[in-house]
Structure formats: C-alpha cells, structure tokens
C-alpha cells in the first residue's frame, strides 16, 4: 500500500513511505483533526456564545484562516519529506534563509507531546464512560447521581491514571506498527466508523422531538450575544480544531503522494472536520433541549449534562454507549496525529525503530500526563499562574505554542519559500494559488496574531 521508491522527477521521498492514496491521506488528517475539540468542545462553546452567530463566524474563520494554514503546513511537509524539525531545517537552508527554522518544527513536536499528555487523560475519562454507559450507570439517574459519578471518578487518581494508561497504550500500539500497518489501517476503520456512529446518533436526535429547536439554535444568528470575545473564541476554535500548528499535519503531509492535489485534499479535510463539528451540535443540542437542560453548560456538557439526558430517554443505555464509543474513536485518531511527529523525529534523528520510538515517546507523554491526572484530585488545590498543572499545560499549548507555531509556519510558506517552490507543491499558479498566497501572507497571520495578543 505504501511505496518507498523515489518520487518522479528526482524529488526526495519520505523515509517512512507514502499514503497509498489521496483518500488514505484525507482520512488520516481528518482523523487527526476530528477529536474532542469537535464533539466535546465545539457544542458548548457555541452554546455559550449564542449559537448561530458564533457558528457563522466560525465557518468564515475556517475558510479564510484555517484552510490556508493547513495548506501551508501540508506543502511544507511534502516538500521536505522528513519529520517537522528536519523538514524546517532543510527547507530553511534550501530557500536561502536559515536552518534555525528547525525550532519551529521543534515547537510543533513539543506541543504535540504536551497536548497529548492531558488529552490522553480526558480521553481516558471517555473510555471510562463507555463502560459506565454500557453498564446502565446513568439509566434513570438524577442530576445529583450523575454529578456524583463524575466527581467520584475524577477524584480517584488511581482510576484516572488507569484509563490514561490504557489510552496511551492503545495509541502506542497503533503508532508502533508504522504508517501502513498502523496509522493507515486504523484511520481506514475508525473515521468511517465515527461517521456512521454520528449519523446513528443524529437519527436518534431527530426522533427526540426537539430537533428543529436544535437547528434553530445552531443556525439562527443572535448577534446581540456575539461580542469580540466570541469572535476570538470562534477564531481560536477554527484554528485548533484542524490540528494545525502542532506538527501533525506537516508529518502526515510528508507521506503525501506527489500527484495528490494539496488544495483538493485540504478542502476535503476542512469540509469533513467542519461537517462533523456541525453534526455534533445537531446531535447534542436537541437532546439537551428535550430534557430542559442548558446548552451552555461548559466542559461538563458531555460528562454530566448528556449522561443525564440519555438516562431519561428510551434506549438511552445503547445510545449513550454509542456516543462515548464515538468520542473514543475521535480521541484515538487525534492522538495518533499528535504522537507521530515526535516518533518520526526519533526514528530519523537517532535511528530508532518505529516500535522503540513509539514506546519512548508514549512513555514520556504518559509520565507528563500524571501531572494532569493529579490535577483533578491529589493536587487539585495546588495552583500557579493559569491554575492547576492541567490548566497550565492547556493554556501554554492552546494559547501560545499552537498559534505561535501556526503563525511561523504560515510566514515561512508565504514569505520565506519562493513562489516557484510553493506553486510547484500546490500545482497551480492561477487564481486558487493567488488566493492562497494572499490569505497565507496577510489575512491568516493577522488572525493568528489576534489570538496570540488576546492570550497574552
């Protein structure tokens, strides 16, 4: 399925091989992009910011900022055909600049490690809720019982550490098997399964009797509830939900076949990622309204509000289980993208095997993740700067490292790489190329700077 042969025209090839097809790449990047940010975070952020007006701004940001940044990251990855650190160093030198651009790749690799250290903890919660849902824990449960279950679970560092360990073990297992036997086989199964599960839940939401209320909430703009903070939140969500700025897309781009259109593939990924975020809202909001709950319940929407809603509905045990299995798949495919840049770096820079690199990186992430595990129980009262250990890692990566990495990647593609290099990778010097160049050189950097300034 993968080829390690040199590309036509004497261009360099990836040491790890290539995706077998355009569809394999789209599934891989979609899997990396679609995660808890789409299904867990997007609905409650939209709920807190007035629904339809937020969704409209979010869609504009995805197209005008997210898309050009993603294209920039893919083209850099395919041009260099190495891990993000080596790619940025190599291209920096080739484009007549400096190999010190490698530090931009390093930011992405480090961001992926730090993000997965706490992402794995939350994903572990999801695994636990699959079991709790299947066992009927939430069937007919009151809000007090649901809250108590959540507090009891997160309050036990042993339980949270166990699910964190299981999730990281599953991630390492797939990555260790390589691009062909691991990453590609996993996403070929999990991404379509994720979509099927989502459509199943959509059918359930439609039958709730409150579907149109959910549609109206999502797509009817409430401009009076849209402030500057809401616009920045939409900008940030559009940026982060696509997994850009953390090296994952660049690493996957290094395995992209030469004859695949970057513009077309990026558009397909953005459409799929955004579509799943919209579907998540259409699934969640009707269930929330059907039970007289609030769509603006914040992070607790998935772990406390929805179990309460499922517990009150016919077939709730089955559909609650399906929902958390769906979340598990989404988290797993995202984790694969987060860990891949560091694994590729270890393989290329230090000659480690895939299995060795996956175990080393996975072990490091697991160890760092223990800080987030303890943030919800033993060390919950130990706060500094942005809050707990979990809060600080989340703040550092989401508000500083990712936008900084994305900004520098876009500047590199738009201003450092010559027109011939980028046009060669994008396969066009016509209107589409000119639009990308304008967005990547001007609009996207300004949008990302706004996120950075707001964070600081």
Description:
- The protein is mostly helical and 456 residues long.
- It has a single domain (8-455), classed as Hydantoin permease (Orthogonal Bundle).
- It has 18 helices and no strands.
- It has helices spanning 22-33, 36-48, 52-80, 84-94, 102-134, 143-154, 157-176, 178-206, 211-219, 228-241, 248-253, 262-290, 300-311, 316-350, 354-374, 389-416, 419-426, 431-455.
- The N and C termini lie far apart (46 Å).
Secondary-structure topology with pairs:
Elements lengths: L21 H12 L2 H13 L3 H29 L3 H11 L7 H33 L8 H12 L2 H20 L1 H29 L4 H9 L8 H14 L6 H6 L8 H29 L9 H12 L4 H35 L3 H21 L14 H28 L2 H8 L4 H25 L1
Helix pairs in contact: 1-8, 1-12, 1-14, 2-10, 2-12, 3-4, 3-9, 3-10, 3-12, 3-16, 3-17, 3-18, 4-5, 5-7, 5-14, 5-15, 5-16, 6-13, 7-8, 7-14, 7-15, 8-12, 8-14, 9-12, 10-18, 12-13, 13-14, 14-15, 15-16, 16-18
């Amino acid at each position: 399925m993968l080829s390690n042969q040199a590309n036509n025209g004497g261009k360099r090839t990836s040491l790890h091989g290539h995706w077998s097809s355009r569809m394999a790449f789209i599934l891989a990047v979609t899997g990396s992009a679609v995660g808890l940010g789409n299904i867990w975070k997007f609905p409650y952020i939209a709920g807190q910011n007035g629904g339809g007006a937020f969704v409209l701004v979010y869609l504009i940001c995805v197209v005008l900022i997210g898309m050009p940044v993603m294209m920039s990251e893919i083209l850099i990855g395919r041009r260099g055909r190495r891990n993000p650190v080596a790619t940025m160093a190599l291209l920096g030198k080739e484009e007549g600049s400096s190999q010190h651009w490698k530090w931009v790749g390093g930011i992405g690799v480090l961001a992926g490690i730090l993000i997965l250290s706490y992402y794995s903890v939350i994903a572990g919660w999801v695994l636990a809720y699959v079991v709790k849902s299947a066992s009927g824990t939430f069937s007919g449960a009151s809000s007090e019982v649901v809250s108590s279950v959540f507090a009891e679970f997160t309050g036990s560092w042993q339980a949270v550490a166990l699910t964190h360990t299981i999730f990281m073990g599953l991630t390492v297992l797939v990555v260790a098997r390589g691009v062909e036997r691991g990453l590609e086989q996993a996403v070929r199964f999990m991404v379509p399964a994720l979509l099927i599960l989502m459509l199943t839940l959509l059918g359930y939401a439609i039958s709730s009797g409150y579907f149109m209320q959910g549609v109206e909430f999502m797509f009817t703009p409430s401009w009076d509830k849209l402030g500057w903070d809401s616009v920045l939140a939409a900008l940030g969500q559009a940026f982060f939900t696509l997994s850009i700025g953390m090296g994952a897309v660049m690493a996957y781009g290094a395995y992209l076949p030469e004859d695949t259109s970057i513009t077309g593939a990026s558009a397909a990924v953005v459409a799929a990622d955004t579509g799943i975020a919209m579907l998540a809202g259409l699934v969640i909001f009707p269930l929330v309204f059907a039970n007289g709950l609030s769509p603006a319940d914040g992070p607790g929407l998935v772990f406390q509000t929805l179990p309460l809603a499922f517990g009150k509905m016919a077939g709730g045990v089955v559909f609650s289980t399906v929902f958390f299995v769906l979340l598990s798949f989404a988290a797993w495919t995202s984790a694969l993208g987060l860990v891949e840049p560091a694994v590729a770096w270890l393989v290329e820079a230090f000659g480690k095997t895939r299995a060795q690199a996956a175990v080393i990186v996975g072990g490091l992430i697991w160890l760092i993740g223990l800080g987030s595990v303890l943030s919800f129980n033993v060390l919950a009262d130990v706060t500094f700067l942005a809050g707990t250990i979990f809060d600080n890692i989340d703040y550092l990566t989401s508000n500083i490292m990712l936008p900084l990495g994305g900004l520098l990647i876009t500047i590199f593609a738009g201003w450092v790489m010559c027109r011939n290099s980028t046009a060669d990778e994008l396969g066009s010097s016509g209107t589409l190329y000119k639009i990308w160049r304008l967005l990547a050189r001007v609009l996207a950097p300004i949008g990302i700077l706004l996120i950075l300034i707001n964070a600081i």
